[in-house]
Protein backbone atom coordinates (compact mmCIF):
# COMPACT_ATOMS: atom_id res chain seq x y z
CA UNK A 1 0.00 0.00 0.00
CA UNK A 2 0.92 3.63 -0.12
CA UNK A 3 3.57 4.53 2.48
CA UNK A 4 1.99 7.89 3.24
CA UNK A 5 -1.36 6.27 4.04
CA UNK A 6 0.18 3.54 6.14
CA UNK A 7 2.06 6.00 8.28
CA UNK A 8 -0.76 8.34 9.16
CA UNK A 9 0.85 11.78 8.91
CA UNK A 10 3.44 10.71 6.36
CA UNK A 11 6.06 9.63 8.93
CA UNK A 12 7.39 6.09 8.57
CA UNK A 13 8.26 4.81 12.04
CA UNK A 14 11.02 2.29 12.58
CA UNK A 15 9.68 -1.28 12.62
CA UNK A 16 11.55 -1.95 15.89
CA UNK A 17 12.63 0.46 18.59
CA UNK A 18 13.55 0.56 22.24
CA UNK A 19 10.92 -0.31 24.83
CA UNK A 20 8.62 2.62 25.40
CA UNK A 21 9.49 4.35 22.12
CA UNK A 22 5.85 4.05 21.06
CA UNK A 23 2.53 3.98 22.89
CA UNK A 24 -0.66 2.03 22.41
CA UNK A 25 -3.32 4.54 21.44
CA UNK A 26 -6.00 2.59 23.31
CA UNK A 27 -4.47 1.92 26.74
CA UNK A 28 -1.34 4.12 26.63
CA UNK A 29 0.84 1.06 27.21
CA UNK A 30 4.43 1.05 25.98
CA UNK A 31 5.27 -0.74 22.74
CA UNK A 32 8.45 -1.57 20.83
CA UNK A 33 6.88 -1.49 17.37
CA UNK A 34 3.85 -0.18 15.53
CA UNK A 35 3.86 -2.72 12.73
CA UNK A 36 5.87 -5.61 11.40
CA UNK A 37 7.19 -5.62 7.86
CA UNK A 38 7.02 -9.04 6.20
CA UNK A 39 8.60 -7.67 3.00
CA UNK A 40 7.01 -7.49 -0.46
CA UNK A 41 4.62 -4.82 0.75
CA UNK A 42 3.05 -6.94 3.49
CA UNK A 43 2.68 -5.04 6.75
CA UNK A 44 0.89 -6.19 9.90
CA UNK A 45 -0.10 -3.82 12.69
CA UNK A 46 1.31 -4.88 16.04
CA UNK A 47 -1.05 -5.96 18.83
CA UNK A 48 -0.72 -4.41 22.27
CA UNK A 49 0.28 -6.92 24.94
CA UNK A 50 -1.79 -5.11 27.57
CA UNK A 51 -5.17 -4.57 25.94
CA UNK A 52 -4.88 -6.98 22.98
CA UNK A 53 -5.90 -4.25 20.54
CA UNK A 54 -3.91 -2.79 17.61
CA UNK A 55 -1.12 -0.58 18.96
CA UNK A 56 -1.88 2.19 16.47
CA UNK A 57 -4.67 1.75 13.95
CA UNK A 58 -4.06 5.26 12.63
CA UNK A 59 -0.96 4.21 10.70
CA UNK A 60 -3.43 2.89 8.11
CA UNK A 61 -5.59 6.01 8.11
CA UNK A 62 -5.49 8.95 5.74
CA UNK A 63 -4.08 12.16 7.32
CA UNK A 64 -7.43 13.90 6.79
CA UNK A 65 -9.20 11.26 8.90
CA UNK A 66 -6.57 11.65 11.63
CA UNK A 67 -7.04 15.43 11.57
CA UNK A 68 -10.82 15.07 11.89
CA UNK A 69 -10.37 12.74 14.86
CA UNK A 70 -7.96 15.21 16.45
CA UNK A 71 -10.47 18.04 15.96
CA UNK A 72 -13.03 15.81 17.71
CA UNK A 73 -10.49 15.62 20.58
CA UNK A 74 -10.25 11.83 20.54
CA UNK A 75 -7.55 10.61 22.91
CA UNK A 76 -6.44 7.92 20.43
CA UNK A 77 -5.68 10.52 17.75
CA UNK A 78 -3.74 12.63 20.25
CA UNK A 79 -1.64 9.63 21.33
CA UNK A 80 -0.91 8.79 17.70
CA UNK A 81 0.28 12.32 16.95
CA UNK A 82 2.22 12.89 20.19
CA UNK A 83 3.86 9.50 20.68
CA UNK A 84 3.92 7.62 17.39
CA UNK A 85 4.92 10.28 14.87
CA UNK A 86 7.93 12.54 14.47
CA UNK A 87 6.12 15.85 14.13
CA UNK A 88 8.36 18.83 14.82
CA UNK A 89 6.20 21.80 13.88
CA UNK A 90 5.11 22.86 17.36
CA UNK A 91 7.33 25.96 17.42
CA UNK A 92 6.31 27.20 13.97
CA UNK A 93 2.67 26.41 14.67
CA UNK A 94 2.78 28.40 17.91
CA UNK A 95 4.31 31.46 16.22
CA UNK A 96 1.79 31.30 13.38
CA UNK A 97 -1.12 31.06 15.83
CA UNK A 98 0.23 34.02 17.80
CA UNK A 99 0.55 36.03 14.59
CA UNK A 100 -3.08 35.27 13.76
CA UNK A 101 -4.19 36.32 17.23
CA UNK A 102 -2.05 39.47 17.16
CA UNK A 103 -3.41 40.43 13.73
CA UNK A 104 -7.01 40.03 14.88
CA UNK A 105 -6.37 42.16 17.98
CA UNK A 106 -4.57 44.74 15.86
CA UNK A 107 -7.49 44.78 13.39
CA UNK A 108 -9.97 45.38 16.20
CA UNK A 109 -7.73 48.14 17.55
CA UNK A 110 -7.70 49.84 14.14
CA UNK A 111 -11.48 49.53 13.84
CA UNK A 112 -11.86 51.36 17.15
CA UNK A 113 -9.63 54.17 15.91
CA UNK A 114 -11.17 56.65 13.49
CA UNK A 115 -7.88 58.34 12.62
CA UNK A 116 -7.37 58.18 8.84
CA UNK A 117 -4.34 60.45 8.71
CA UNK A 118 -1.91 59.02 6.08
CA UNK A 119 1.09 60.57 7.84
CA UNK A 120 4.16 58.28 8.06
CA UNK A 121 4.24 58.70 11.83
CA UNK A 122 0.68 57.36 12.07
CA UNK A 123 1.53 54.36 9.86
CA UNK A 124 4.58 53.65 12.01
CA UNK A 125 2.46 53.81 15.15
CA UNK A 126 -0.02 51.34 13.65
CA UNK A 127 2.82 48.98 12.77
CA UNK A 128 4.16 49.26 16.32
CA UNK A 129 0.67 48.43 17.61
CA UNK A 130 0.84 45.10 15.77
CA UNK A 131 4.20 44.23 17.34
CA UNK A 132 2.78 45.22 20.71
CA UNK A 133 -0.24 42.95 20.22
CA UNK A 134 2.08 40.06 19.27
CA UNK A 135 4.16 40.63 22.40
CA UNK A 136 1.10 40.77 24.64
CA UNK A 137 -0.39 37.61 23.10
CA UNK A 138 2.95 35.82 23.59
CA UNK A 139 3.18 36.88 27.24
CA UNK A 140 -0.40 35.82 27.90
CA UNK A 141 0.16 32.37 26.42
CA UNK A 142 3.46 31.99 28.27
CA UNK A 143 1.72 32.89 31.55
CA UNK A 144 -1.02 30.39 30.77
CA UNK A 145 1.51 27.59 30.21
CA UNK A 146 3.50 28.53 33.31
CA UNK A 147 0.31 28.38 35.37
CA UNK A 148 -0.43 24.91 34.00
CA UNK A 149 3.07 23.64 34.80
CA UNK A 150 2.95 25.06 38.33
CA UNK A 151 -0.45 23.49 39.01
CA UNK A 152 0.56 20.10 37.61
CA UNK A 153 3.85 20.12 39.50
CA UNK A 154 1.95 20.92 42.70
CA UNK A 155 -0.76 18.28 42.17
CA UNK A 156 1.32 15.48 40.61
CA UNK A 157 5.05 16.17 41.20
CA UNK A 158 5.96 12.58 40.32
CA UNK A 159 4.68 13.14 36.78
CA UNK A 160 7.17 15.88 35.90
CA UNK A 161 10.42 14.66 37.43
CA UNK A 162 12.39 14.45 34.19
CA UNK A 163 13.27 17.19 31.73
CA UNK A 164 11.88 15.05 28.91
CA UNK A 165 8.47 15.07 30.61
CA UNK A 166 8.43 18.89 30.64
CA UNK A 167 9.49 19.04 26.99
CA UNK A 168 6.88 16.49 25.90
CA UNK A 169 4.11 18.30 27.76
CA UNK A 170 5.21 21.66 26.32
CA UNK A 171 5.16 20.22 22.79
CA UNK A 172 1.71 18.76 23.45
CA UNK A 173 0.39 22.12 24.68
CA UNK A 174 1.86 23.98 21.72
CA UNK A 175 0.38 21.51 19.23
CA UNK A 176 -2.99 21.63 20.98
CA UNK A 177 -3.28 25.37 20.31
CA UNK A 178 -3.91 24.61 16.62
CA UNK A 179 -7.50 25.70 17.16
CA UNK A 180 -6.31 29.30 17.01
CA UNK A 181 -5.90 28.80 13.27
CA UNK A 182 -9.66 29.30 13.15
CA UNK A 183 -8.88 32.96 13.74
CA UNK A 184 -8.09 33.19 10.02
CA UNK A 185 -11.71 32.67 8.87
CA UNK A 186 -12.81 34.79 11.84
CA UNK A 187 -10.89 37.67 10.26
CA UNK A 188 -12.25 36.98 6.77
CA UNK A 189 -15.89 36.69 7.86
CA UNK A 190 -18.12 39.53 9.01
CA UNK A 191 -16.77 41.39 12.04
CA UNK A 192 -20.20 41.38 13.69
CA UNK A 193 -19.61 37.71 14.52
CA UNK A 194 -16.07 38.14 15.82
CA UNK A 195 -16.86 38.09 19.59
CA UNK A 196 -18.86 34.88 19.22
CA UNK A 197 -16.13 33.32 17.07
CA UNK A 198 -13.45 34.28 19.60
CA UNK A 199 -15.43 32.73 22.45
CA UNK A 200 -15.95 29.50 20.49
CA UNK A 201 -12.28 29.31 19.51
CA UNK A 202 -11.17 29.96 23.10
CA UNK A 203 -13.34 27.12 24.44
CA UNK A 204 -12.16 24.76 21.70
CA UNK A 205 -8.49 25.53 22.40
CA UNK A 206 -9.00 24.96 26.14
CA UNK A 207 -10.64 21.58 25.45
CA UNK A 208 -7.71 20.66 23.20
CA UNK A 209 -5.24 21.74 25.92
CA UNK A 210 -7.06 19.60 28.46
CA UNK A 211 -6.95 16.56 26.20
CA UNK A 212 -3.25 17.10 25.47
CA UNK A 213 -2.44 17.21 29.21
CA UNK A 214 -4.59 14.17 29.90
CA UNK A 215 -3.00 12.10 27.14
CA UNK A 216 0.59 13.17 27.80
CA UNK A 217 0.54 12.51 31.56
CA UNK A 218 -2.13 9.77 31.49
CA UNK A 219 -4.35 11.62 33.97
CA UNK A 220 -8.08 11.57 34.63
CA UNK A 221 -10.36 14.24 33.20
CA UNK A 222 -10.48 16.44 36.30
CA UNK A 223 -6.82 17.26 37.02
CA UNK A 224 -6.11 18.80 33.58
CA UNK A 225 -9.03 21.20 34.04
CA UNK A 226 -7.71 22.26 37.45
CA UNK A 227 -4.36 23.02 35.82
CA UNK A 228 -6.04 24.94 33.00
CA UNK A 229 -8.11 26.92 35.49
CA UNK A 230 -4.94 27.96 37.33
CA UNK A 231 -3.32 28.85 34.00
CA UNK A 232 -6.29 31.07 33.14
CA UNK A 233 -6.00 32.83 36.50
CA UNK A 234 -2.35 33.65 35.82
CA UNK A 235 -3.12 34.70 32.24
CA UNK A 236 -5.92 37.02 33.38
CA UNK A 237 -3.55 38.45 35.96
CA UNK A 238 -1.21 39.45 33.13
CA UNK A 239 -4.15 40.98 31.22
CA UNK A 240 -5.16 43.02 34.27
CA UNK A 241 -1.56 44.20 34.62
CA UNK A 242 -1.50 45.49 31.04
CA UNK A 243 -4.89 47.15 31.47
CA UNK A 244 -3.66 48.99 34.57
CA UNK A 245 -0.76 50.24 32.46
CA UNK A 246 -3.35 51.72 30.12
CA UNK A 247 -2.68 49.33 27.22
CA UNK A 248 -5.43 48.02 24.98
CA UNK A 249 -5.30 44.19 25.02
Report what the structure shows:
It is a single chain. This protein folds into two domains: 22-83, no CATH class; 89-245, no CATH class. Helices cover 59% and strands 4% of the residues. The chain has nine helices and four strands, in the order αββββαααααααα. The strands form two sheets. It has a two-stranded antiparallel sheet with strand order 1-2. It has a two-stranded antiparallel sheet with strand order 3-4. A hairpin with a 6-residue loop joins β1 and β2 (30-31). The longest helix has 36 residues, at 120-155. It is a multi-pass membrane protein. Belongs to the ARV1 family. Mediator of sterol homeostasis involved in sterol uptake, trafficking and distribution into membranes. This is Protein ARV.
Tell me the layout of helices and strands.
Layout: H1 3-6, E1 22-23, E2 30-31, E3 35-37, E4 43-45, H2 63-71, H3 75-83, H4 90-112, H5 120-155, H6 163-175, H7 183-188, H8 194-217, H9 222-244
Antiparallel strand pairs: 1-2, 3-4
Helix pairs in contact: 2-3, 3-8, 4-5, 4-6, 5-9, 6-8, 8-9
SSE arrangement, N to C: HEEEEHHHHHHHH
Mean pLDDT: 81
Terminal CA distance: 51 Å
- Biggest sheet overview: 2 strands, antiparallel
Number of strands: 4
Strand pairing plus helix content: what structural class? mainly alpha
Tally of helical segments: 9
Low-confidence parts lasting 5 or more residues at pLDDT below 50?
A: 1-19
Question: What structural keywords apply?
Answer:
249 residues; mainly alpha; 2 domains; two-stranded antiparallel sheet; globular; disordered N terminus; transmembrane helix; transport
Amino acid sequence: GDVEALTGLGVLPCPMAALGAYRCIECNGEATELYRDYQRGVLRISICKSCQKPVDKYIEYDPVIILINAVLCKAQAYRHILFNTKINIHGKLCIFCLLCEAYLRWLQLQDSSQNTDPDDLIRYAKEWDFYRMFGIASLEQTSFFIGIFIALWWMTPEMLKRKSDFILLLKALLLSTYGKLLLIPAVIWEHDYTPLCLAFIKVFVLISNSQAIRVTLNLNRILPWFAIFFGLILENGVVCFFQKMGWDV
